[in-house]
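Could you join me in thinking about how sequence relates to backbone shape in a protein? To get us started, please write out a protein record for me. Would you write everything just below, so we can both look at the same thing?
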Amino acid sequence: MRLPALSIFAAFIASSGAAVAAPTPITLDQAMANPDWIGNPAEQAWWSWDGKQVFFKQKRTGSQLRDTFEAVQGGQPRKVADADLAKLDSPNVVYNRSHTRAVLVRNGDLFERDLKNGALVQISRGVKAEDPQFSSDERAVQFRVGHEWFSWDRASRVQGPVALPRAAKDPAATDPDALRDMQLRLIATLKRTKDDRDAGRARAEEERRADPTRAPAPIYLGDKLTIEGSALSPDGRWLVVVTAAKGGDKGRVGKMPRYVTESGYEETDDERTRVGRNNPAPHALKLIDLATNTVKDIPFDSLPGIATDPLAKLRADAKLDPLKGNRPLRIADRADAVRWTFDGKQAAVMLRAVDNKDRWIATIDLPNAKLKPVHRLSDEAWVNYDNADFGWLPDNRTLWYLSEESGYSHLYTSSTDGQARALTSGKWEAGDVQWNFDGSTAYLLCNRKNPGTYEVCAVNAKDGATREVTGLEGVERFALSPDNRKLLVHYSTSYMPIQLATVPVAGGAAAKLTDTRTAEYKAREWIQPEYVAVPSSDGGDPVWSKLYRPAKLEAGKKYPIVMFVHGAGYLQNTSKRYPNYFREQMFHNLLVERGYIVLDMDYRASKGYGRNWRTAIYRQMGHPELVDYQDGVKYVVQNLQGDAQNVGIYGGSYGGFMTFMALMRAPEMFKSGAALRPVTDWTSYNHEYTANILNTPELDPQAYKISSPIEYAENLRGNLLIGHGMVDDNVFYQDSVRMAQRLIELRKDNWELASYPLERHAYTQPESWFDQYRRILKLFERTLKQ
């Protein structure tokens, strides 16, 4: 059979005709060693205030400590002396409207930089300042400490509170009481004393308001709520406060035992609750007029669809009471869920239904404390939490936002008349938006060429004209220079951890600033992944995958197949970037050396492929993805001499879950598998992730039943390795223990459970990595080469 076309962004290396060096052999010990031997990547990076230098953090070899370096083009980075750290800026910078000043947060302290001469002034020390912003007149810097807001006046150098919301009862307030009312009516002395006291308080407040040197009084919101967030208008007039009811049911928390401890005694930690055991607490919005300390509730009634229950049928089928009134909402779980215009005259807020079927963006009618809906995004499955950026353009009138309404994440603007306009479109994803000073151009991450190639794109705000600024193929993130003329880009390649480069915003060659790889690692030759589009038997888009194979296939030989499943579900591993699974990639090199063919697939639910791909698993986790892996096996068998009788599969977390589903739902195809830190029963996982995809166990029990591997354990026929960290606080070790007990009761053989007493979800110790992959290699060598 003819080999299907490869991806347009990577053909087989051999087809280029260029000489390719033979891969350097890799040992298991080397692949699973502390990754310091590879060379530690450039981590946080930022521009100097004048855009002439780039600084970054890097981990020390053999230590978890980080140092700060100055990147030098064409040379070795220079370590910044401790004595010079106080002069530096940080990645967390906010500019004023005219871009003449910047405020930055460094180690929780606040500083202001004059961009004309570089003068640096410290504003706060030791108070953990957050969310800094310039006042609308640019004479002051405002910032949040906890939920309280403060301002620093540049002229006077005075710092003081602006808004002090308190989740407490006003000490001067009294509850209705008939006996008190009678006493005040009958006893004139008591009434006179109270009136004098009230008059004194009123006069003191009048004096406070008239005297600009006085701090404002606290604003008491009551003791039956908690404050979840707050946002101050730059003009200092308004405060939006996000609240939740106090004392809600937290649900029963899990207890995680730890057996290997410093104390020598067994210990336990409290962990998260399970899905459906308690829904996220609904939020409410309050608007405070700081000129009068008037507090108003902002109702949600104006949001379209707020009173319609998208889960009504499931609720009825489960014989649950129908939803009454409005659906519960949460203000989007982001620090910047409320956005103000520069002048402080308008605010926008992002809200989500607790069931996560709807997301709204609305402006706030400040005088009337009402919401004015701007955009509604609905999804019968779930609304994506990723790519949810929004904000205002510098004209103080135009709102911009990302939306998946077309099926892919794209950039939109909305004018004050509510007219929305798409600035980007197509079968690609836009994300991580940054605007230039004047709002004429948006810069964003894009994968226009193909799903796995990421560049920075520039988008014209007037006509939506879009162009690729970079040509690095594996851009991870970026930052505009202070003068908006360059981009500081984090990029990577298949075998190169994240490095730094600068690129002119007009386009052109990248000036590469770092290469942190060790000489030993750089000297190696690796098996380059081939990017292939596996046809889907479901008739949809192909399944993009990374293929690792011998450079030349021996005629007539059948090769055992290993399928790798990435974790997280919503994650992309078939890309030009350095993979999260860099150890596994080296392991795949080793497997190819041992005579295997390895296929690493971006199965349905993976990131980067649009809404339909993401939500294909709604109410059926493990089903579309298994079809994709079955198609992958058929692809290797039909085109690459794969041995259909000797197929293995492995992965961690979601990959462990899928390994179970493969061995237990398609035992005729998958002979052996290693399920690492796997979910075995979704009723035991967390709410935030699971309820989006499967709703809740009470509401949708069938979705949980068909999606949980433990329900299929009786079908296991092949060879199974389970590996799990015993202090895993993400997927609890209990998941694997329960599966083990189920297999014992079913009298299954050819399985084992390897436990790692000191490992959490993400293993950290080389010994654990080695032991786990030694077992995986042994499993495949023993069972797939017969």
Notes: Residues 1-19 have pLDDT under 50 and may be disordered. The longest helix spans residues 188-210.
